[in-house]
């Protein structure tokens, strides 16, 4: 029996050996074995022209990539969503004929899915990553999808490279580690050898990569699109979502702890606020550029690794979206929703942005494998609110029961119906752009600059933001095992800023670059999160109480803070009722065992008559952690006296007072500030 098992094992090993392939040192080929001469650029009509359908290498590469994982999304697998409505502030008729952008009196239903990019469905939500921000508008002309991210640029310039960046940033295939993280060799090796990723990597290492909430992050369409008006005049356009609560982030230590404390932190935040009636609001902004201004800038407007500086091309705010209803079933709605940048309506069109051109192919291909066939548009969450009529039939999961014998065009039996609609009847007509050029796999010279906007981003950061970026590079590259890759990255980012590169090199065991730097001195204040809106609205406040607290005063303070939108939650030694003077009681929402300071925005230390040493220790740890994360701390009476004996009591952002009206005002203002970066933390 043992000999038979050994023979079988040897036979299986021989079978497996035939399928083992070592790619190192080999020439690149298609899956059919044909050698490939170029893998950096898709086949285009002219170096700035559109990608051609005959590009079989692009199709093979992208098709394989789109079908690599089932059943979850290849990217953006970890997501959460909500319903809402959108209204335009004023008619945009001058720029576009899209009907949902015409009448301020019309509310357009929307469905928005937020997501992380790299991690699997089961990963934590506060990881360092790009966030998806995809919006489905159910318009009277059909579905329009604005498929955005919370960063305005991307890693690559050409869609053919998308499988490469995702392969590089996903867990490494030999051991499938690490999950939902860019802190490993293959991602940084990709960056070092594909330096167009420099700008996006600066964003990824910034605070933008660890948002405080889905409700407090921007959204960007990334790609350059077109508006087209009734007269056929076109404008280049980029889309922006601006959160009414401002743009705010976590600190890295906080984000890591939240991943363990509450891996569902972002979805819980969105769900709970909508359930409470604190509906998230975002304003839609557009940057609009006349076609004749296409070449007036130092960057190519079709390059997805570049942003349009708001100081040069202002953002025009044109409407507002409110998210006001949670989903009923996460799988049926959030998981089955299918977005596609090619889902457009008349008045919105495409450009020759080579990343966008790749996306226009990729998304449909992905839905075919993920949702089981060509009828994914019939799933309720994806169905248009206006009727659809065509000659498509059958296929997996078909729900429409088509009547009649005709399923083709043209026909006399059905009177040539359904018939195409003219532009006057609302039919979609592609913008007629002149395209000419040789069939080439090349990239325009205007796409060659990889560092100037990375330098612009760095120049635009405040002192604490720069420190966070440096710390992020030190952490990420400290996880990279390859000395060569670490050195390549340090040398590469010397082109962005020499001081940045030197600060990184100091901590990761590489040689400091001897030269580098840039002559880019321009900055863009809009890129710094310190230049954002500040509000106490919906901020979560931890209130530390024990029996014996001053009932009337605490009640007065909490009512005053709630009036400014603060959401207090009671933390005590045990769950149950916490009893104060004057017969006033509160129900404890948490104990120190069931929650942590990292899931709150501020702490109000009240205490009470408890003399428990254990309580003092737990409360002290709770408060000090919030303090070390630069959060506002408030205290009155017993809590005030307890903090006065500590160095925290004299620090900025720590409000101590027995004057209740003054305390409410000052502490409310501190909560709105959110972080006190000039605080000394030991």
Automatic annotation (TrEMBL):
PROSITE patterns: CATALASE_1, CATALASE_2, CATALASE_3. One of its GO terms (cellular component) is cytosol. It catalyses: 2 H2O2 = O2 + 2 H2O. There is a cross-link at residues 340-363 (3'-histidyl-3-tyrosine (His-Tyr)). This is Catalase. GO terms for molecular function: catalase activity; heme binding; metal ion binding. Heme binds at residues 73, 113, 162, 359, 363, 370. Signal peptide: none annotated. Residues 1-24 are annotated as: Disordered. Keywords: Heme, Hydrogen peroxide, Iron, Metal-binding, Oxidoreductase, Peroxidase. It comes from the Bacteria. PANTHER family: CATALASE (PTHR42821), CATALASE-B (PTHR42821:SF1). The active site is at 76, 149. Residues 29-417 form the Catalase core domain. InterPro entries: Catalase, Catalase_AS, Catalase_clade2, Catalase_clade2_helical, Catalase_core, Catalase_haem_BS, Catalase_immune_responsive, Catalase_large_C. GO terms for biological process: hydrogen peroxide catabolic process; response to oxidative stress. Belongs to the catalase family. HPII subfamily. Decomposes hydrogen peroxide into water and oxygen; serves to protect cells from the toxic effects of hydrogen peroxide. Its cofactor is heme. The keyword Metal-binding applies. The keyword Oxidoreductase applies. Its EC number is 1.11.1.6.
